[in-house]
Amino acid sequence: KMNYLMEIKRFYDRQLSQRLSTGQIALWHALMEVNNRCGWQEWFNVHWGTLMDLTDLSNTGLQYCLKALLNKGYIEKREKGVYRMIPIKKSEYNSGNNGGFNGGFNGEWLQ
Known about the structure:
mainly alpha; 4 helices; 10% strand; disordered C terminus
């Protein structure tokens, strides 16, 4: 099973060096949420309309963002509506250049 919170942390660590668009971020979170509700299956089904509703992306925008997540190695697609989240390994992002967003994080930017 995937560690949901660790995956989100690693996602944002990776985001600092390998930027995604807001639509791509929304789609990644939507897919994570659907897979969470499916009980963390390796491969899970989700209807295209559900992804449009969860992300507020248009059909074209959703196609673009899905292709980007596939090409950047965040997800795999087996067939129409069947996806697999690819766990982010710590080695996949530059943890040495993370703008101070690390174990010493004190939440100052939240204030």
